[in-house]
Structures are given as C-alpha cells and as structure tokens.
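Q: For a teaching session next week I want to show students how multiple molecules come together into a single three-dimensional assembly. I've collected the sequence lines for a complex. Could you give me the predicted structure tokens for the whole thing so I can convert them for display?
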Amino acid sequence: MQNKNGRRAVIVGGMRTPFVKAFSDFTKLDTIALGVAAVAGLLKKTGLRHRDVESIVWGGVILPPTQPNIAREIALDLRLDPGCEGMTVTRACASGLQAITVAAAEIERGNVDVVIAGGSDSTSNATIALPPKVVHALAPLALGKPSPADYLGVLSQLTPISEILPRQPKIAERTTGEVMGESAERMAKRNEITREAQDEFAVRSHHRAAAAIASGRFDDEIVPVQAPDGKWVHADGLVRADTSVEKLAKLRPAFAKDGTLTAGNSSALTDGAAAVLIMSEEKARALGLKPLATLSSWSYVGVDPADQLLMGPALAMPKALDRAGLKLADIDLVDMHEAFAAQVLSVLKMLGSSAFARARLGRDQAVGEIDPARLNVYGGSLALGHPFGATGARMVTTMANELARTGKRTALLGICAAGGLGAGAVLQRVE
Amino acid sequence: MSDFLVELGKNPRARSLVQSLGLPIPLPQALRRDRGPWRERPLADARVAIGAAEGAQLTAVLAEVLGAAGANSYLALPASLASAFKAPGETFGRPSRPLEALAEKDRADALVFDATGVKDTTGLRALYDFFHPLVTRLGRSGRVVVLTRTSEGASPEAAAAQSALEGFVRSAAKEIGRVGATANLVIVSKGAETRLAPVLRFVLSSRSAFVSGQPITVTARARAIEEPPTVRAFEKKIALVTGAARGIGEATARALAQEGAHVVCLDRPADDGPTSQLARSIDGAALGADMGDADAPAKIADFLRSLGGVDVVVHNAGITRDKTLARMKPEVWDQVLDINLGAVIRTTAAIEPVLRDNARIVCLSSIAGIAGNMGQTNYAASKAGIVGFVRAKAEELAGRGITVNAVAPGFIETRMTAAIPVAIREVARRLSALGQGGQPEDVAQAIVFLASPGAHGITGRTLRVCGGAFVGA
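A: Of course. Below is the structure for the complete assembly, covering every listed component.
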C-alpha cells in the first residue's frame, strides 16, 4: 500500500539471535549486547554499508534503567556512523512490531530511507530495584555532604526490614496486581478452553518449530552468537521435538491450584533479539536489494486489563484487515504471538464468534475461523520462546521470508501485550 | 456520623461473641458500597442465580445485561429460556452454567427471578420454588431482584398475582436485610424492554446499597435515548444541585462531578464558604441564592442560561420546622411549604425554557411524606406534595425526553438526623430492614442514577432510599 506521497516502506531482510531460556547461555549478555548481535548479523547478511543506515528503532520491555535508549547504544557499540540516530520504543510484548511500524511510518512520510528496526530483551538481566522507601531514605547520602547524623537518620528510616528488601520482579499488571499467567488462566476458564486443547496446541507449536529447525528453514534468519564464556549458540534452546500431549499432561498447573495452564502450554522467560531492515522501496531497488514484503496496515488497540487481559488481538487483527481492505479469507498465512496456548485459543474462538462480532466489532458476520494449517506454520512463542521486545521482529522476519519464498500473497499478524494491549498487522508480498 | 453497632459488627470476633452469647443486640451488616466512578462491569465476577416462571419474557434482556456487566450466570431455567444466555456468554467470556454448578461453599451475589410469565396464584409457586432453597445462600450485601409486567389490561387474576409479588419482595427484604442484602421488584411495561438494562445495572450493583423493598417501574413514557452510556454518563452535561453545601446535596454534587458533569452548586448566601469550597474541589460553579426569595427562580434561570442550558436539576434544598399540629405557628407552616414545595414548583417553571432536551429533574421527597411522621405535618405535606408534582410534571415534559422523578430518603446519617435525641435516633436506625441508617452517598447514588441518560425508562416516580424501612402497602 502506497503512502499519499507515493512512498512505500518495504522489508528487505531480517535476522535474529537464537532464542534461549533465561539464565542459560545468554545470562552474561545484556539486552544491548543481544541487540548488537542481531543487528551485526543483519548487516552482514544484507551487505549494507554502515553509512547507509540512517536510524535504528528498537523495542524493549525490560530496559536498563541507566541507558534506556538501547537503540542508540547498539548503533554506538557497532560503530555505525555517528549520524545513525536511535530511538527506543516500548509497548510491552508488541514493542518489536511497534519499532517496525514506527520505522515504516517514518519512511513513508519521507523522513528517512533506511532503518533497522527490531527489539530485544534479556530477562536474565532484569534489574532488581530497591523499594522507593530505601531510595528516598538514602537520598541525603547521595546528595551533598552527609553528616553522621544523616547516616543515623537513614538507618532509623529503614525499618521494618520487610519494607526495604528488594522485591522479586514479576510480570504483574500494575492496575490489577495479577500475574499475566493468572489473567490467562481466567481467560481459559471464561472461554472454556480445555487443558487438552492447550496442550495439543503447545505440542503442535513445538513440533512445527522443531521441523523448521531440522529442515534448515531458520538458517538464514538466525545468526550464531558467542557467549562471553566462549560458547557458540547456533539454535533456539527451548524447542522440544520430542514433546507430546502425554508428556505435557503430566505437568502441574502453574498459576492456580485447579488451573489448566502449565509451564508446557505457557511461553517461557527468554533472552534474545531480532532485527529487520526496512527501506523505502526506491532506495532498496537503487541498492539492488530485493524487497520481500510491505506492511499494508497495522493497528494497536486496548482492552480493559481487568476483564480479559490478552484479548486485544481479537479486536486488533480485524481492524488491521479492514485497514488493508482485506477479509480473513484473503489471508494466506496467520502468525500469532503465543503468550499462552489458552490466550491464542481464546482469541481464535472470538474471531470465529458471530456473537462477539456483533457486540464488540459492530458487524453481523464473525471474522472467521482460522485453519490450523495456515496458523503459526513454524511454531510460535510457546516453542521458540518470547524475548518480549524481539517477538514482533521475529514474526515479521519469518512471515516476510515465507511470502517471498512461497509466492503466497498475504500474512496476518496478531500480538497480545500487557496492559490489555493488542496489535495486528497485514504483510503483503512485494513483486 | 458513625453507627456504633455497624462498627462493632465489622469486627468478626465481636460478631461471633454476640451471636454465641445470644445477646439481644442487633449487629447490622456493614453495607458494600461503590464510591468510585461508574464501571463498565459493575458486576465483575459476581455469581448471579437466575430463575423464571414459565412464559418468561425478559430472560434475553437479562442475559445480555448480566454478560455485559461481567456477571457469571447460574441458571435454574428450562432449556428453551437458557438458550438466550449462549451468545452473550460467549461474547463476554461469561458462559452460563446450570445452578447445580454453583459450588456448595459459594454464596450467590444476586438472585434474579423473571416472573413475567406468572399469570395466576398457582403460578406464584415457581417464585417459592426458586427462592426457598437459595435465600440462605445469598451472600452479604447480596441482591434479590424480581421482574414483572405492569398490570395494564391484565385479568383480575393476573393483576392479583403481579400485585402479590410486591408483598413478597417487601417481606423478603425484611428477612435478608440482616446480611445487608436488598430485595426489589422491577416492573417493566410493554415496549420498555430496551430501557431495562441500566435499571438492572443499578439495582444489582452496590450503588443501590440502601434501596430495598420497593417496586421500580420502567415504562416507555419519556422519549427514548439511543444507547445510553454506561460510564462517564455526564460528560458535557450541566447539573444544578440546590442545597449543595452539605449532606445529601454535597454528596450528590460530588457524585455528579465524578461522572463528568459540570455542577452548579447552589446554597444560601450565608453558606457561601462551604458552597464555594465544594465548587472549587469539583471544578464546578457556586451560586448563592435563598430559595425563599421571590427573585431566586429568575436568578437561577439567568445563571443557567449563561451556561447554555441545563441537563440535570436536583431540587435538594429543604428545611424542617417540626411542631405538633396544635403547637405549630402559621408562619412555620408557610415557610416549610414554601421552601420545600412552592420553591420547587416556581424554580422548575422558571428554568423550563433553559432545560435541554432529555434533561433530568430529580426532587427530594421523604419517607416522612409517604408514611407520615409525628410533629411533621408541614414537612410531610410538602414532601408528599413532591410526589404529586413529579407525577404530573413528568407527563408534561415526556415528549421532550425529559424525566421528572423524586427520591424519598428514609433515615440518613446527616447533620439533620444527628440532632435527633439519641434514643429516638437509635430506634429509627434499627427500623430499616438493613438495621442501620443510610449514608448521604446512598441517596446521591440514587439521584445520579435517576439523573443519568440510562434512566429514560423511569419518570413520574418516587424512588425510596430507606433501606426497606417503609411500613405499609
């Protein structure tokens, strides 16, 4: 889809690090280092000159408190041209897609021609923050010249001890206090998604991802990364080719005593990064690079986090379809972020519900059923893992490559995110 | 004003001690209230048991309202009626379940019975069959709601059965009041089905904490509003509250402002201090006027005209000058009648030209005016007069979509009731089915509900906010 001024942003290529379980091989690599690895891999693959990169837009969820603009840090660490500016965006698990759509919008507006967009997260390097009470109490010591009385004053404020201990970080909704798994657990119950259905979905994700890895499908999407201890990591670490419904059925519920969500049908805490090269179509052709796909549309929505936290894609995906002027039937491939099997299945159920369409989308017809054969053809976050900021860029890379590889025309993306956010986007192959 | 017994009852140890010793002390249940802004899903996660008599006509509306409001429905319905719950259950992720699925340990937050199919005395048995096993399973501050039709054109038998429901609900209210629960009857006339949803959202939510034991009639009399908002219902609306300096008036002004209204706070010039303070804190306007002054109505109308009109008028200003009839001086009679009734009529006439279409007028009546009260012949006359005024005025303005209603507070903890001698006050509090007095906020919530766009089905009526204290038929 062309912009009013005739410009169109195209995806030229994508690259990511292997995704590995948090506190494993990448523990000593922070989110900037992971981003550097992905962007370096992308530059190498596309053969782009450093000075051609005008901007980096990067998505992240757990940002380093003292250097939150990781985009700029990546550019500087890679010794890109000092003129390559950088911005970091955050929209929870949709941050990676957010970075890409910001880049596309900037290009289509005519501000820039070449942008690297993507995202990364290192759950292993989440900062454990001191409670505000301690920070406020310590302020007199940090500022000016403290007297002994100041030290005593600080000590007197630091009781009881339970209030000053650092809190274990957890991904809880600020407004509801609910951990995301608890919200997804409630969604499973409310949408009547069974444990069996979730486990089956998770197994399919693993088997498809494993098949993709075995067939070499991910080989030109993944750059091997060397950890500081010298070990090379070549492949995703969470995929289990040998898992089965029987094996998953043995796992205990993770979020509620009589719940249906387990470690097996929920995505794991993951370290990783993914980067996508986006250009104006003109520039890509001038540089002799083959455009793979273009973003026909995108949409971001919000739903009440206290209701069904991860239902956003059920609104965002139809909206993106509308904006692209397409129907679900026109879509060849669907790629959905798998935060939890229960969440994907809940969204699929609502997309197939005409009652939902009437009440929430203001239309008589359901958006439609999605054929499992077209959905997450190479698995998803359940199997591959979910470094929050990287997932959107991983999905765009895999789908852009798939469109170019197979000659299929369209792909629909859907991502749920904390805060009750949802994202949808339509990718179209570029001839 | 704090109620010692309610405070004591909040302590579980004291509660069990009083009960195990069998002390003759009533321990009223502290009521669940919702003081924040209106919510999209006021019944989030509430467990609602639903029953119906054969031929029930409102189960589809119920299904939609409960799903959208976030409730989980437990059905004691034949399959033909239960099917209405399927689509809303799916849409809102609130699949309905059979009543048996309500776990033994779980309490119901509300019991709703659609009695629109009841045609005769024997049909009433379904009511008993539904409530008899469930009434002990109703949770604290729970809700009982019975739905029926207006008796226009009904056979004498059907009219008797419908009328019987009122007695049932009033008595049920007395029985369940000790757990802070309320029971109300919602009477829906033909053609007013689409106006039922906002009423149910109010009576089933904790905003109706002190409304119990009474019928609420929903009709298609006033012009309808398309899809009234469920939250922020007063955005871009201008409201006038008289007697806003304190008590019920202040609570109403605050509640309206909380929903987005620009509130003109009116009180006597002598109360300029608290009135201005209130207006500042809710970003409204203050207006000083004495309702007894002959030029007050014109002054108010001018002020509202300068704002471009008014959407909500709450006639709350009122006075008491209690004396038994034999001792009452004529000027005291005149003063009370003039301010409580005369001024309301004069002011309404003066502001009629600046009332916007679909405006809402809410007057303050009183249980004293409905049930009568010793030493209050003047006050009761003025407050009963309000009942007649709203009934007739509603007819006049219905074509413009304007509704006119009254609320009749019972014993409310205000400066006025704090002045009552302690022994009488204590008795008055325990007279209500809920065993306690109401809060000014409870009345404010009822006023805000009647003032909301969604209350387009209610006009010409008087809503009691008395905790089920009213005695009589």
